[in-house]
Amino acid sequence: MTTEDDGGFPEIRRLDQIPPAVPLGWLVDQEAEYSLRLYANEFADYPHGIEERGTVGDALALLAIQEAMVRNILHGRGGWIWETVRLGASWREVGAALGIEPDDARSILREWSERRTEEGTGALIAMGDDERAAVT
Questions:
Q1: pLDDT in tens, 98-107
Q2: Most exposed among 3, 62, 110, 127, judged by the fewest C-beta atoms under 10 Å?
Q3: CB 132 within 8 A of CB 123
Q4: How many domains does the chain fold into?
Q5: Residue ranges making up the domain that contains 62
Q6: Per-residue pLDDT tens for 63-94?
């Protein structure tokens, strides 16, 4: 686990302690480390050489990190939908990939695009008329 002492982030106990632009890969690595320590609590002799057992602090960190992962993934989902459609996938294929109806996939893209437009980086601005009509 990284801490300020070794040049990393401070120990995590709350979501607001995780910077918003942390790469998903870092979150995944941290999630794995905290999870292993907590899993070690379930076994008297944990087979993977984890000597340190999980604590309440580890459990709080794990919850915060997992929430940050979910938010990170959901925040960018519309962008990946847009890229998938732009590369030629049908809405039926996009919906199937997400396990949802095509109209629900369109709604996700529309909401993402509207949020980006409010932020001044709107994806609909970059779309041609035909593409924009397919989303809205």
A1: 999 999 999 9
A2: 3
A3: no
A4: 2
A5: 1-75
A6: 999 999 999 998 889 999 999 999 999 999 99
**Structure-token pair, residue 47:** 């087979």
Each residue of 8-31: pLDDT tens digit? 556 899 999 998 888 999 999 999
Contact 94, 85 (CB under 8 A): yes
Both structure tokens of 113? 């695009």
Considering the domain boundaries, does residue 62 fall inside one? yes
Angle between helices 56-86 and 24-40 (to 10 degrees): 140
Spell out a b/e string for 49-63, using b for 16 or more CB atoms within 10 Å of the CB, else e.
ebeeebeeebebbbe
Whole-prediction pTM: 0.69
Residue with tokens 């990393």: 8
Task: Please enumerate, as own/partner, the contacts of 96-105 that have beta carbons within 8 Å and a separation of 24 or more.
Answer: 105/81
**107 neighbors 115 (Cβ within 8 angstroms):** no
CB 78 within 8 A of CB 109: yes
Q: Are residues 4 and 62 in the same domain?
A: yes
CB 21 within 8 A of CB 71: no
pLDDT at 9: 54
